[in-house]
Amino acid sequence: GGYLLPGLWDMHTHLPKKKKNDFGYEQYLALNFLSGVTNIRNMRSFDSISHVTRKIENKSILSPNIYFTPPPITKNNHPSIDSIQFYTKKYTSEGFKHWKILGLPNKDYFDTLAKYTKEHQLKLVGHISKSVGIKESIMGGYSCIEHLQGYNKLLSDTLMFEEIIQLT
């Protein structure tokens, strides 16, 4: 007489950092869990990741499983090209599965990033950089493109749209 439903995923969350009107990350996580969300991917680094994960592991808060991303890469705030390999190894060893891109300085930076993230099995997720484009992003290892960026520009080019859909 009951129903069995799969757990839901929220693949793009931003945990509240501060309590506002008695609503903070603990309430946010509990509401997600009680709504059937069993897994979330937090797309911005959180100041106290170990504190949050400890509370979840100790079952002191009700929460879905959380997959954190390290600090995002932006056009103006990113590890130097020479340190990408170091950070890719570091983040993989710390248990991160995804690295969010908000922007990239240039195509050479992306090529280096793609090389080392593939090597260390750290998935790229996020926004499409104008300096790279959607096709190169997918071929370079993006596993998730946020907000469907890049696809809307393809609507006037049916052949390119079909090619990108196949790559996706």
The CA-CA distance between the termini, in Å, is 40 Å
Structural class: alpha/beta
Backbone CA Rg: 18 Å
Average pLDDT value?
90
Could you list the spans in which at least 5 consecutive residues all have pLDDT below 50?
A: none
The tally of beta strands, per DSSP, is 6
What fraction, in percent, of the residue positions are helical?
25-40%
Largest sheet: 3 strands, parallel
Name its key features:
6 strands, alpha/beta, 3-stranded parallel beta sheet, 168 residues
Give a structural overview:
α3 (84-93) packs parallel to α4. It is built from 6 helices and 6 strands, in the order βαβαβαβαβαβα. The strands form 2 sheets. Strands 1-2-3 form a 3-stranded parallel beta sheet. The longest helix is centred in the last third of the chain and has 13 residues, at 107-119. By secondary structure, the chain is of the alpha/beta class.
SSE topology sketch:
Elements: E1 8-13, H1 25-34, E2 37-42, H2 49-57, E3 65-68, H3 84-93, E4 98-101, H4 107-119, E5 123-126, H5 134-139, E6 142-145, H6 158-167
Parallel strand pairs: 1-2, 2-3, 4-5, 5-6
Helix pairs in contact: 3-4
